Amino acid sequence: MEYVVLARSCRPQKFGEVVGQDHVVTTLRNAIRMNRAAHAYLFSGPRGTGKTTVARIMAKALNCSERETEEPCDQCASCREIRDGVSIDVREIDGASNRGIDEIRELKENIRFAPVSSLYKIYIIDEVHMLTKEAFNALLKTLEEPPPHVIFMFATTEIHRVPPTILSRCQHFDFNRISIRQITENLAAIAEKLNISISPRGLALIAQAGAGSLRDAQSLFDQVISYAGETIADGDIEAVLGITDRGYILDLLQAVLDGRAGACLEIVNDMYYAGEDIRRFYQTFTRALMGLLTACVSKNDELLEEFTEDERRELRRRAETVPAEAVERLLGMLLAGDEDMRRASDSRLQFEYLLVKMATLEPIIPVDEMINRLEALESRLRSGGSRGRTAPARPEAPGKTPGPEEPPPPVEEPVEQEDVTGEDRLWKLFRKRLKQENPILFSKMSEGILLAAGEGIIKIGFPQGFVFLDNLREPAALELMSRVASECAGSEVRVRIEEMNGRNKGNGVNGNADGKRPLEEIKSEALRHPMVQKVLDTFEGAEVRDVRIKEERSRS
């Protein structure tokens, strides 16, 4: 007897046997039960996901003479003819080889005749996107108003190539890729039926190689059985499919994370002489690193179903010891180097260079820690800038005298207790505390000029059109600044943000037309200039002794 490959012999014959397309099957079964079958269907999706299979089952269900439910009986003459591909009333047409207008015209002539022995005459056109523009146009009118005894079923892997005019005349169903778990379960059922001995890991490897296509996975399983017989070892599967040894992948991953560049080169060398393909290894390693990043940011194991159970546990374990930011940076380097790997004349050299670069990266310092380090450095610089100033000694415990070589204990900087009676001192303390509380908000406010401080209010002025003016006027920002100001003053203080529209410009304080401003106002404004404030904040103990006005020379 002629052998029939698994992809054909294990093809579903009823709706209940279809794998991974519940949303499509449920809708079609309800349409049959309610007698609401459409005159045209369009099934789209990746290859090997059941588009043509579902079209055949639908055709059998519509024409089944013994059907009692939505399922075809698969035993009557009509079901057997459709299953064997010899039905006169159900025609399967290859869109790639029957794509011209002449074939469509012939089809239009044939649909006028009633079915011979079935209820419906059904046309299944596979890869319908291959039809020419003229063929699609010739089909439009017939597709919109076909005879009541005709039903069209189209299948395509490239839905974007089907004209919108065709899409609008069909009920469209989008088929999903089949999950690795569902493919594994299907292969396990086939193995049990055929008395094939294979490990769960071996089934998972074949399912992964199928890449969401059940038909491809079944074809690969057929190939593995032909190679290894009824007892299949994991090594047989790796040999047939050319799968990279996962041991190399996990060892290399750990070597990169540990920063052991030499070990990375040794692993690549062993892998190379074991006959592994460098470019395939590169892609597998990239997927493994993406799996580690997924384990770092999500607890959902369904996102890691392309890995075996042991590999998932290993990725989860390693995700607990490495920050997601570090894995993200390494994965970015691999993705950025993908094009270089494809174009490299020596792929091994390119891969080794990239691995050494990844393994010798400086560790990532978290942002919070970086800010703390910068603030500590700023504090030390300020302390070092004061001449002859020493840190106050901490009182020693009774009876203990420091040794001559014993370093003095670290001195914690006391919280600065400043007299906040004057508006300038309140302003200085407010700026310092706000910088510690919220550096980002302080950077936006630091260009402001103190206009007034007193009676429970701090007014801060900004030039007209200042870029951060709207941000500073937001309720959250004002609330934060007011709270900080209140803590500095020891009483309730509200911060107000004002826009300076050229105050006193072009006119004296007493209405003089000469445009000269009072000397005291000019000095006060100079003292509040942002650059002066930055100098005073940076160099502790600095003060302004005098403000001199540069007189303009009269022009002759």
Output the keywords.
Rossmann fold; Zinc Finger, Delta Prime, domain 3; alpha/beta; single chain; Helicase, Ruva Protein, domain 3; 556 residues; disordered C terminus; three-stranded mixed β-sheet; 8 strands; 8% strand
SSE layout:
Layout: H1 6-9, H2 22-33, E1 40-44, H3 51-63, H4 77-84, E2 90-94, H5 101-110, E3 121-126, H6 133-144, E4 150-156, H7 164-167, E5 171-174, H8 180-193, H9 200-210, H10 214-228, H11 234-241, H12 246-258, H13 261-273, H14 278-297, H15 309-319, H16 324-336, H17 338-343, H18 347-359, H19 367-384, H20 423-437, H21 439-445, E6 449-454, E7 457-463, H22 469-472, H23 475-489, E8 494-500, H24 519-527, H25 530-538
Parallel strand pairs: 1-4, 1-5, 2-3, 3-4, 7-8
Antiparallel strand pairs: 6-7
Helix pairs in contact: 3-4, 5-6, 8-9, 9-10, 9-11, 10-11, 12-13, 12-14, 12-18, 13-18, 14-15, 14-16, 20-21, 20-23
